[in-house]
Amino acid sequence: MSTLMSTLQVSAAGLTAQRTRLDTTASNIANIQTTRGPDGGPYKRQDPVFEAVELGQGATMVRVSGIEADQSPPRLVYDPVHPDANPEGYVAMPNINLVEEMVNMITAQRAYEANAASIDTTRKMARSAIAIGES
After folding, report:
1. How far is Cα 2 from Cα 90, in angstroms, rounded to an integer?
2. Which of 106, 95, 98 is nearest to 18 (CA)?
3. Is residue 127 helix, strand or coil?
4. Residue 36: left (phi > 0), alpha (psi -120 to 50), or beta?
5. pLDDT, tens only, 85-103
6. Residue 51: what are its φ and ψ, rounded to 5°?
7. Average pLDDT, whole number, for the chain?
8. Stretch 17-37: mean pLDDT, rounded?
9. Domain carrying residue 88
10. How many domains does the chain have?
11. Cα–Cα distance between 102 and 55 in angstroms, integer?
């Protein structure tokens, strides 16, 4: 039974990690035009940081160890009438690429679905094992 439990634990950890990735990506997309963040500058793109955790017996699961701000420079967009424009007329915009964020979202969604399918398959296997034991 420990193999079934570790399979469920690995898949559940994967669901949690991909949920964090989806939430982070959604936050990045929502802030694509935010020119004033808490530090006074433009919003910085966020990325979850994952780490592998050994469970023993060859099983490894993923865990979110934190969320880091992307340190790449902001995009400069010429908009002299914007309230945050510098003296040359450029506005520092967040370092977010919408296409990249959409790809991240699709990838995270597919990984989430794969982990959910793994949990469902494990559940069906456990149910079948119990049925065999009862016969």
Report:
1. 59
2. 106
3. helix
4. beta
5. 999 999 999 999 999 999 9
6. -140, 150
7. 91
8. 95
9. 2-134
10. 1
11. 32
Best CA proximity match to 70, nearest among 91, 90, 41:
41
Task: Give me the long-range contacts of 35-43 (CB less than 8 A, separation at least 24).
Answer: 35/82, 35/84, 35/91, 35/92, 35/93, 35/94, 36/84, 41/74, 41/92, 42/74, 42/92, 42/93, 42/94, 42/95, 43/94, 43/96
3-state secondary structure 36-65: CCCCCCCCCCEEEEEEEEEEECCEEEEEEE
Q: Strands 59-69, 90-93: parallel, antiparallel or unpaired by DSSP?
A: unpaired
For residue 45 the two structure tokens come to 């793109």
What pTM value is reported for the model?
0.84
